[in-house]
Amino acid sequence: MTDAHETAADRSLRTTGGAPPDDAGSSVTEAPIPLLDPREGVPPVVADASALDRVTAAFAAGTGPVAVDAERASGYRYGQRAYLVQLRRAGAGTALIDPVACPDLSGLGAALSGTEWVLHAATQDLPCLREIGMLPASLFDTELAGRLAGFPRVGLGAMVENVLGYSLEKGHSAVDWSTRPLPDPWLRYAALDVELLVDLRDALEKELDRQGKLEWARQEFDAIASAPPAEPRKDPWRRTSGMHKVRRRRQLAVVRELWQTRDRIAQRRDVSPGKVLGDAAIVEAALAVPAHASALAALNGFGRMNRRQLEQWQAAVDRVKAMTESQLPQPGQPVTGPPPPRAWADKDPAAAARLSAARTAVSALAERLSMPQENLISPDTVRRVCWEPPKPADADTVAASLAGYGARPWQVEQVTPVLVTALAAEPEA
């Protein structure tokens, strides 16, 4: 690669003068340079224990932060496991690791335990990395850094182009990464995803520092790194697309039974559930509650199935028909916390006035700070504080409430004054 490639962060400072744009996201003024190949070429895929040991030793001996990325096979395989892990670190170069052939990367994770990891959209990759024994003690999330810095486009390609002046080819982002062997163009794409990640981190750190937001970002990164694994979602079948059409309890039970049957089949076959049966077909069957397999075959999504498959799905419907009323699910999910905001005006006009004032104030503050409202403070936190405000609603009690709902110290400091004012809002006559 060229010398310009090796000083990407310097190129960013040269083209921006070290300052971010007033219209964030258009910092580089020169035409982007296509990034076509990793500087040391595409490394061989690590697919055995001895190669993994060599990579582990090399990365343990490297210096500075380590760029980390993972590729999944969403839409092709069951679950969200990693099918390729990419790393890059100064002194170690780039490594591409096959976590199917090497499913335990805890040794590599331990070797990097004292190192800052650089990821883009960390919350997307951390669950699958955790499954194979890799979890950072500290991290820098370049996507989140871009949000806090006020960039309107925070995808990796847009950030690399706008901040560093290079264009990444993104044509392989949605391919089936469970494919073996992985095609060379895919491996090149995967290696390039970590090629400039540390350069991007360095440039964004300077930008956040210039805006006075670096400590805010560090608090956000620490929160991500220390977060426990997400709890399994309760009643995941209720998230079936098109559920708003399903009203009756027995129809809801058909959705549940078909969803659970599909999930078992998908897990056994290791394919995406949508490849077994689409959500639209599940909802249509629930609305129709077909009497027999022939009636089921007439519904969209079932017409091309063979007799055995149709009978399998009809059996799920028939199990619902045999259920007693007590076995049927209740419509909706138990609501925790405040009711939907649209109901506030009727239920509690004073709370509705507080929420309206709070939303307006938070929106204005987020605009002044050049960041999305949801990164300034969680909308759910605002709703909870407005629905049941502390008494008295002064700076100390509001700050304590925000902290109790998980707001970071920087968020508490910024948001508390505007919420104190909003909580004093009176409903319109």
TrEMBL record:
Region spans: Disordered: 1-39
Biased composition (Basic and acidic residues): 1-13
Cited SUPFAM superfamilies: HRDC-like (SSF47819), Ribonuclease H-like (SSF53098)
InterPro entries: 3'-5'_exonuclease_dom, Exo_C, HRDC-like_sf, HRDC_dom, HRDC_dom_sf, RNase_D-like, RNaseH-like_sf, RNaseH_sf
GO molecular function: 3'-5' exonuclease activity; nucleic acid binding; nucleotide binding
Residue stretches in coiled coil: none
All copies of domain HRDC, residue ranges: 248-327
One Pfam family this sequence matches: DNA_pol_A_exo1
GO BP of this protein: nucleobase-containing compound metabolic process
Protein name: Ribonuclease D
Source organism of this protein record: Streptomyces tagetis
